[in-house]
Write a structure and sequence with these properties.
Homoheptamer. By secondary structure, the protein is of the alpha+beta class. Helix content is 51%, strand content 18%. Helix 2 runs antiparallel to helix 3. The longest helix has 26 residues.
Length: 292
């Protein structure tokens, strides 16, 4: 017992006891903060989105661990008012030295408040489309459909046009095509709407939409718009192309290729074109013998 008392007195004299206690506070606070942050999101399993759960988890973790760190610093005898002043000066210096990071940090706060998308949403930013796997203070991480990891700075997200493809439960697919001028447009409309009606992935409500876009250079341009559940969008897109082609072939509806007419002038006769059989090597050899 005397030996233990002597050891404690020795630790107090050499301040090792204070350092040990401060270290235990920091390490123990870290694990307590992790447990508390994991338990916090269990109180709101359905009320919060994945994005909100992540923000709540991080907020609880940093607040609790910060309190333990502050307590450890007080055990070591640090004056917190001086630390706060030094932190303010350091923050200003770092802000001037890293304006891009500060801009990304502020943009990240705006993203968390505005919440234009959440984790697991599919978004399109510029030419990049992928699933959101993380929304951090400095950047947003995406996983593309070919399994690539893409990091986009938050400042770019704020300044760019961001399209959330999974925001609503249904999506519309617009099929653009052209038919020959000799076709009956009413018949074409009937065939296309029949294709949409037979496809099980096309929703009955909203109704499929047929739009006559106008007269193109080589065809009458039309649009067929159909709706599908968000998870069936790609299946519908693949199947509708094949079904429209088969239906047009069945009813003899022509999808024309581009035509080009050449004129030498309004008062000039058309340039005559004569089709000839292609020459074979044997015919070329006989022609050479005849000339000799």
């Amino acid at each position: 017992m005397e030996e233990l008392k002597s050891l404690i007195e020795f630790l107090e004299v050499t301040r090792l006891f204070v350092f040990s206690r401060s270290l235990l506070l920091i390490i123990g606070g870290f694990f307590i903060a992790r447990l508390a942050s994991a338990a916090a999101i269990k109180f709101f399993p359905k009320a919060l989105t994945a994005h909100s759960q992540l923000a709540l988890k991080r907020s609880v973790f940093y607040v609790i661990w910060g309190l333990f760190v502050v307590s450890a610093l007080r055990q070591l005898g640090f004056d917190l008012s001086l630390l706060l002043g030094a932190a303010g000066i350091l923050t200003v210096a770092v802000g001037f030295a890293s304006q891009t990071s500060a801009s990304n940090l502020i943009s990240g706060l705006f993203l968390m408040v505005e919440r234009p998308f959440s984790i697991a949403d599919v978004i399109r930013v510029g030419g990049t489309t992928g699933e959101v796997i993380s929304i951090d203070l400095l950047s947003v991480k995406l996983r593309t459909f070919d399994n690539l990891f893409v990091r986009i700075p938050n400042e770019t997200m704020i300044k760019s046009e961001v399209t959330t493809l999974t925001k609503f439960p249904i999506r519309r697919f617009d099929l653009l095509l052209g038919v020959a001028y000799r076709e009956n447009i009413s018949k074409v409309k009937e065939v296309l709407l029949e294709v949409a009606d037979r496809n099980p992935l096309c929703l009955k409500e909203p109704d499929p939409l047929f739009i006559f876009q106008g007269f193109g250079d080589s065809s009458m341009d039309i649009q067929l718009s159909v709706w599908a559940q968000r998870e069936n969008f790609l299946k519908l897109k693949n199947s509708i192309f094949e079904e429209v082609k088969l239906a047009f072939d069945e009813h003899g509806i022509e999808i024309p290729f581009p035509h080009l007419s050449l004129y030498a002038g309004s008062e000039t006769d058309a340039i005559p074109v004569t089709m000839v059989e292609p020459r074979t090597p044997e015919a070329s050899a006989e022609q050479k013998r005849d000339l000799n």
